[in-house]
Fold:
Amino acid sequence: MTDDILRMRGITKTFPGVKALQDVNLSVRRGEIHAICGENGAGKSTLMKVLSGVYPHGSYDGEIIFDGEPCRFSGIRDSEHRGIVIIHQELALSPQLSIAENIFLGNERATRGLIDWNRTNHEAGLLLERVGLHENPVTTISDIGVGKQQLVEIAKALSKKVRLLILDEPTAALNDEDSAHLLDLLRGLRDEGITCVIISHKLNEVIAIADSITILRDGRTIETMSMEADHVTEDRIISGMVGRDLENRFPPHEPKIGSEALRVEDWTVYSPTQRGRKVVDGAGLTLRRGEIVGLAGLMGAGRTELAMSIFGRSYGTDISGRIYRDGKLVEIRTVRDAIKHGIAYATEDRKRYGLNLIDDIKRNVSAADLARLASRGWINENEEFRVAEEFRGSMNIKAPSVSSITGKLSGGNQQKVVLSKWIFTDADVLILDEPTRGIDVGAKYEIYSIINRLADQGKAILVISSELPELLGLCDRIYTLSEGRITGEVAREDATQESLMHYMMKGQEQIR
Amino acid sequence: MSSISPTSAGVAPGGKDAGPALPPGRTKLFGASLNIRQSGIYIAFALIVVLFAFLTDGALLEPQNISNIIVQNSYILILAIGMILIIIAGHIDLSVGSVVAVTGAIAAVLMVNYGVPWPLALLITLVAGGLIGAWQGFWIAYFGIPAFIVTLAGLLLFRALTLTVLGNQGIGPFPDQVRTLANGFTDGYLGNIGLGPLGGADLFSLLVGLIAIAGMAASQWRTRTARQRYRQSVDPLPLFLLKIIAAAVVVLAVVVQLARFKNLPWVLVLLAALVLGYSMLTNRAVFGRRIYAIGGNLQAAVLSGVKVKSVVFWLFVNMGVLSALAGIIFAGRLNQAGPTAGGSFELDAIAAAFIGGAAVQGGVGKVVGAITGGLIMGVINNGMSLIGAPSERVLLVKGVVLLAAVAFDVWTKRRAGSAQ
Structure:
């Protein structure tokens, strides 16, 4: 028998309306590096949250056996107590505190309630040596780069006597050099007997470092392979990740493609938080009337950033490039400019960026184009009511009236309110960012029908989605984005999940 | 197993009986609790008035006392109007007390020391208030410093400026016209009329009251018919009439009492105009809607093309102008601009807004609510002094009322959230 440090059996986790995990099994051998791969939304992060107690025992079905003992974690402290430490994609460091303070945050080196600073900094120094970070422990976190911050996270994990280290996309924000160093460090930790679970989209790294791999798809375990024994290649992983049939989930649609509506050229955007980091790099795309165009890319590829920067520069700094509307060069500096030029952007995060959740449907629908309902600054509320009622009917928004508070609607109905709001602006170009995220299957079909209808009305539509089947089922043409660059443009007939995934993952190497 | 199923079967009929009865009861309860959240403040106000009318043997509702409550609280109510707008947008203004002082001082120096004609002096003072608001609005909206900090600095800055302008002493007296605006009453243009057992009352005041009631009723009726044309749901006619009549009775009662005393206070006329205007602004104007959008979800407002910075800037300009108005009225009432004028007015205005139903996170609130909140504190102040309560007890009660009002708001919100 193999010596498994961790066995998760029959894990099922449901959110309202969505089955995120279904009967997932995961076995990790002691002292190995185990990779978990899968598309966005395949359930990797959810599985890790179940393991680390973020979702406490009782909120999921199935069992977790760690080191031969069944575990019932009620919180992250419980799992850390057993030596399971997770390092999230977004680093959880306090930027204004020192390295040493961060390492021992919540776990302070203290005697009788007073922090022993000598001990804190001394022990922090030893941990930094172990992870190969040559910095003074009193250095402030914000003064070191992301790569080094990642090492601080690992040092923090080591301080908790970690036995199973979980890394969620550890190299996503790192450059090649830092990535290589991190991978070396993980190999070193393995030799010290620490087991690692690594979630990564970078398949070359997975091939290079992992001993075995588990592939998830649609919330299920597809397969677990030993890298050496099974001669795993990148292509083999990709086919495991996407191998699924397109079901009859999309309404049929015959596109009637017209003239060019939007063209973006040489679009470059820098990150507003990390100086000098290009988030979008010389991207270009063209949208035509009546056409539904997809934008595919992995998490962090810059999809939302590209869209928002086009939409009145609502993301990013030092933006350069040209936008043509109906063939004419236009200058779009603010969201108002964008709306005026007939561009709409429906956000991927409707609760944070899309809706005023404490206000009602009609006031949300009218929010982006109030001027249409007003004369000399005074709103015609009866007209507003009528317009909103029309949308409630045509979009099939399920609510007792347009005076219902949007915060109380289901995800699908909230999304319909967001779409109504942008349709009301009479935009010709609609950028829809993850239009079906967190929506149940029935409502998804309705949203697809709405999108088709909009295209038939002659609108140009860009759909951003993490779900490749959705793009393949809905779009007439698909762009792929990787690390801020457009790496491919594929017509629907030629597109397969495999080909898109190749562009999304290997794009960079193919370009060079 | 078999022993359990009969019991549960035996329970089932009773449960079934309760079943159909419960949902209507629950929805009714839910509907009522929703109503309480919106109208709780007015019910609370009515209860407090009744309570103090009782405790003071009716002295609270005597003609002169009603007039006093209005005049004594007018400047706080004016400030509360500006404050509620700022709080709806998710900001705060701690400087209004000092702005009241400095604008009162400016008005006094202009009129008393330099002999500037009073209409011009009033205009200059209002513009000065606007400039002060623009100064703070710039740092908040365009420079991005939290309003709490900017206006805390303003609280110190404008108090310092007051002392400088006044040379650390009171300046007065004010021209009669300014004193009349702050403290005076409309003339008995049409003479008196006998009201039977109530004695003589000013006919002009009564007529103004009746016209106001007629106007209110007509406008409500127009709104109702317009909504019906658009096939929106409206209150059933009896309820609609009941609401109008109730409001008319309250207005009429106040007006009659005022007419029996000294006619209408000018500040009441001013306040009525402000409340009407700002209620229209918040309910019906694009600008007003923007304020709610910003406070409700700032990010969504930005992505809907709302010029957030400009809206916030103008809100503070507006607050400055209203503070100047309050400053003139306060100084005119005392007939002197003093170095300590307006102390802790900001706290009263903020308390009025929150008692009146504003949400701490912004996005919620009504002008009429803030006015009611201000009147609740005014009635508590007045009523407790009538029964001879010491000032420490007045403060205690006001503190408890503020805490209770916000606790109630948080509680109803949480319940609404958990019901979902």
User: Anything to note?
Assistant: The two ends of chain A are 46 Å apart (CA to CA).
